[in-house]
Amino acid sequence: MKPLRQRKSPRLRGYDYSSEGAYFVTICTHQRRHLFGSITDGNMCLSAAGDIAAACWRSIPQHYPAVELDAFVIMPNHVHGILFLHGDSGAFKTILGRVINAYKGAVTARIRSTQSDDGLVWQGRYHDHIIRDPESLSRIQQYVEKNPLLWSEDVFFAQE
């Protein structure tokens, strides 16, 4: 029997994800299902699950005071967002992965409490990009804000 192939971590090796700074994250739904709504004429029309995803995103700073939200968008099958980490918050270290996992868990729990579908909501992992300068921040903010308008060109685009 062949040994199971070890997945390569998408995280930057040796980087401290509790470091103060800006992070761009993308979180996809399980099997890229259009769970959060649809795009009509370049506008995102949120479903009930999309409303939950947006509300949970906005509430992140209530649970993690060392996190500041910037641009974000809920898309039919993924979420893009920019987070700023501002050091430790009280008794525990604010770590990007901890914040994202808590967000995913909260969205999943709320969706399952309102729908009879208890299937998977998210892919197991997420994508992150460490934003290193103001020019990158500006470019990524524009990308996030224009994402619904450019849906058909998006790497995550899929007809449903």
What does this entry look like structurally?
With 160 residues, this protein is an alpha+beta fold. Helix 1 runs antiparallel to helix 3. 29% of the residues lie in helices and 23% in strands. It has four helices and six strands, in the order E-E-E-H-H-E-E-H-E-H. The longest helix is centred in the middle third of the chain and has 19 residues, at 96-114. The strands form two sheets. It has a four-stranded antiparallel beta sheet with strand order 4-5-1-6. Strand 4 and strand 5 (78-85) form a beta hairpin. It has helices at 48-58, 60-63, 96-114, 134-146; strands at residues 21-28, 37-40, 43-46, 67-74, 78-85, 127-131. The model has no long low-confidence stretch (mean pLDDT 88). It is globular and about 40 Å long.
Keywords:
four-stranded antiparallel β-sheet, single chain, 4 helices, 23% strand, two-stranded antiparallel sheet, alpha+beta, 160 residues
Structural class: alpha+beta
> Shape from CA axes?
globular
Strand-residue proportion: 15-25%
| Strands, count | 6
Mean pLDDT: 88
In sequence order, what are the helices and strands, one letter per element? EEEHHEEHEH
Assembly level: single chain
- The gyration radius over C-alpha positions equals 16 Å
Helical coverage, percent range: 25-40%
C-alpha termini separation = 38 Å
Q: Largest beta sheet: what is the strand line-up?
A: 4-5-1-6
Helix run count: 4
Biggest sheet, open or closed, and with what strands and sense? 4 strands, antiparallel
Model regions low in confidence, pLDDT < 50 over at least 5 residues: none
